Amino acid sequence: MLAENSAPSTIGTRLANQTTPDQRITAALGYLFTPMVPLVALRGDVEDPFVRKHARQALLWAVPFLLLLAAMIVVMIVAIQRDILFVCLSPFVFLLPFCPGALWARRVYFGDDVTFPFGVGDE
Q1: Coil/strand/helix, residue 52
Q2: Are residues 120 and 42 in contact, defined by beta-carbon separation less than 8 angstroms?
Q3: Cβ of 15: how many Cβ atoms within 10 Å?
Q4: Per-residue DSSP letter, 33
Q5: CA-closest candidate to residue 101, choices 61, 68, 50, 71
Q6: Cα 28 from Cα 80, distance rounded (Å)
Q7: Closest CA to 115 of 27, 43, 41
Q8: For residues 89 and 8, is the Cβ–Cβ distance under 8 A?
Q9: What is the pTM of this model?
Q10: Every domain of the chain and the residues it spans
């Protein structure tokens, strides 16, 4: 029976409670610097299920991330061709695709679980 203040435990929260800061940093950097860090984590000899789970999820995030980044580049090229003043907005527009990965990296680093709706990485 669960106590009033405790939430049901999931695989992600159990794994996050047993991780070291190095494992959490590796998992968090995977969301920020996708697809390079997840590829290194998966190709390396990392046997930790927490790091491998988040590396697989970060690789899945790489596809929409790269599409968003390409779309932002096209939007800025079109906008700058219409009016040169849109150059002032370009740093903010280029940061938009990084926002979801940064939020997920923060959650992972502080011990929360990041799960995608289609259940990738759950073993």
Answers
A1: helix
A2: no
A3: 19
A4: S
A5: 61
A6: 34
A7: 27
A8: no
A9: 0.76
A10: 12-109
Cβ-proximal residues to 104 (8 Å cutoff; 6+ apart), any chain: 31, 61, 114
Question: Given the structure tokens 């096209």, which residue do they identify?
Answer: 74
Contacts of 28 (CB under 8 A, 6+ apart): 54, 105, 106, 108, 109
Task: Give yes or no for a contact between 27 and 108, defined as CB atoms under 8 angstroms apart.
Answer: yes
pLDDT tens readout for residues 6-46: 455 555 555 556 788 899 999 999 999 989 999 999 998 77
Token couple for 5: 């203040």
Q: How many whole angstroms separate alpha carbon 36 and alpha carbon 71?
A: 20
Token representation of residue 4: 């009033």
Place of tokens 């491998």: 52
Spatial contact of 4 and 21, defined as CB atoms under 8 Å apart? no
